[in-house]
Amino acid sequence: MRTIRAFTLFLSALTMVASAQAQVLIRITTPPPPLPVYVQPVIPGPDFIWVPGYWAWGEFGYFWVPGTWVRAPGPGLLWTPGYWGWHDGVYTWRAGYWGPRVGFYGGVNYGFGYTGVGYQGGYWRDRVFVYNTAVTRIGAVQITNVYNKTVVNQTTSVTNVSYNGGPSGLKAQPTAQDAVAAQDKHVPPTALQTQHHDAAGKDRALLASVNKGKPAVAATARVGELSGHGTVAARALEPRPHPAKLQAGPRQDRRGDATKMAGAPGPKHVNRNPKAQPHHDKKNNP
Description:
Layout: H1 2-21, E1 27-28, E2 48-51, E3 54-58, E4 61-65, E5 67-71, E6 78-80, E7 83-87, E8 90-94, E9 97-99, E10 122-125, E11 128-132, E12 146-147, E13 163-164, H2 176-182, H3 191-201, H4 208-211, E14 219-220, E15 231-232, H5 243-252, H6 257-261, H7 278-284
Parallel strand pairs: 5-14, 7-13, 11-12
Antiparallel strand pairs: 1-8, 2-5, 3-4, 6-9, 7-8, 10-11, 14-15
């Protein structure tokens, strides 16, 4: 009995160290579920930075930590989300952190400016954060430091995969800029973020085994508030057609009927005038 108790205390200590020191100590053989789809809550005020939701591991398996708005621990600091990575047959959690620039987070597309590379939701200008309204929900909140810039995803296709590596995970690798960001001085999650994480771990409704990957509280406007006004629920995942099915139509009809139905231009007009230049006629003649 004493041996079991001592081992339990040892595991608890490891979990605490993982949260505080952002070390890779959690080792899971089952990949996390896909990221749920949800709408970002309206920002509660100026100088809040969006921290996307993520799947965490607890006593009863994976549970969802809702995305939320958080004040940075200091001006000029940006949030690098944590991510799950596959290594030597297990999935390990790399905890997020605050720093002067956004580092590598596995290529996971968390949305709302976190496209898998960097953060396009805003930037610091002196001691004021400026928001990109193309990806940030300002609502009726009085925020004057804004701009609008369309965000282009860095990957060729947007998926809900929530981990990097392994047979079915994302294949992103750290860039030279990520290597520089890794050498920056990092600040661990704030006390409110830790409380937010712990509260989510105690909410049975946030367990993946209970909500089937669609949590009723996918995001919240204020950190630590997991119920009531300001929370949003996950929506059903939108099915994406298989690439082979997208190409099946045009390939089946060699007369161009399917191409015309898809809105593509028809064959070019060929100049049959014998006085025309021969190379033009040969080039355009299908």
